[in-house]
Design goal:
globular; about 200 residues; two-stranded antiparallel sheet; 7 helices; alpha/beta
């Protein structure tokens, strides 16, 4: 699995840009990737997105940084040689679509990743239900409230630090996946936190 997290300038892959990507090779978690880039010229930039990821407009429009195309090329290169490149993470379809849109903008024609993903929300939902628990719902919006912070808490890990960082998000996601699927801790930074259902 290629556990992935992106930070972007908004939520629409054709309008907004990636500004950073983090990845963890789940089978070899010591292999990690973190890259930042300049937003593509003309990309829409939402203040709400910057509040989440902590970047300033100056940082994401700094033309001394690599391009979004160069970033996605490094992401693709990171996956080369991996046995399983299935992309995994929280709401990871968004990250996949952003990376694919970035590759298309950059003229990369050999997109190596499938549309099949492993999503933490579904894993955590099923894990809770199998234990006889009721996954949290937003009563107003009438949909799941099981975001990454809720999954982290469920797995005995503190919420992700804010502002969000793509590598931190990828590491948190990889740790959650390991605990949900295998009842095992994965990364040394989470070793001190017990798995609640194994106590």
């Amino acid at each position: 699995m290629l556990v992935t997290d992106c930070e972007m300038t908004g939520l629409e892959p054709t309008l907004h840009s990636i500004v950073s990507v983090g990845a963890v090779d789940f089978d070899h978690p010591e292999r990690q990737l973190y890259e930042e880039c300049c937003a593509w010229d003309g990309a829409s930039i939402e203040d709400e997105a910057l509040a989440v990821n902590g970047f300033t407009r100056e940082q994401i429009t700094d033309t001394s940084k690599q391009t979004e195309g160069e970033l996605v090329h490094k992401f693709i290169s990171f996956a080369e040689g991996m046995t399983d490149t299935t992309i995994a993470g929280q709401n990871v379809f968004t990250d996949l679509y952003f990376l694919q849109a970035a590759a298309k903008r950059a003229g990369h024609t050999a997109w190596p990743f499938a549309h099949r993903i492993i999503d933490i929300h579904s894993l955590a939902w099923e894990h809770m239900v199998k234990r006889g628990l009721t996954p949290p719902l937003d009563p107003e919006k009438r949909h799941s409230k099981l975001n990454l912070d809720a999954a982290l808490t469920y797995c005995g890990i503190p919420e992700e630090p804010k502002p969000h960082n793509a590598l931190t998000g990828a590491k948190c996601s990889a740790e959650v996946i390991s605990r949900l699927l295998y009842d095992k801790k994965l990364l040394p930074e989470f070793e001190q936190f017990d798995i609640p259902w194994l106590k």
